[in-house]
Design a protein that fits this description.
This protein is mostly helical. It contains two helices and no strands. The chain has one domain.
């Protein structure tokens, strides 16, 4: 497991505290883990597509190099 230190703007830190105090989450860590997990879940496909496009462009460039030899 990796440890990460996070500095939050005051308004965001207040919102996190409010979620914990309201009982939505047990701790600040739980709020942040939920937020990061949701971000990764929502953006995973975009990241995979980005890597795929980069791989395709690399392969096209390599094919051009081979044809020019």
């Amino acid at each position: 497991m990796k440890t990460v230190s996070v500095n939050l703007p005051d308004d965001l830190a207040t919102a996190v505290d409010n979620f914990v105090e309201s009982g939505f989450f047990n701790s600040e860590l739980d709020v942040l883990l939920a937020a990061v997990t949701e971000f990764v879940r929502r953006n995973r496909i975009d990241l995979v597509e980005q890597f795929a496009h980069e791989d395709i462009e690399w392969a096209k460039n390599e094919a051009r190099k081979i044809r020019c030899q």
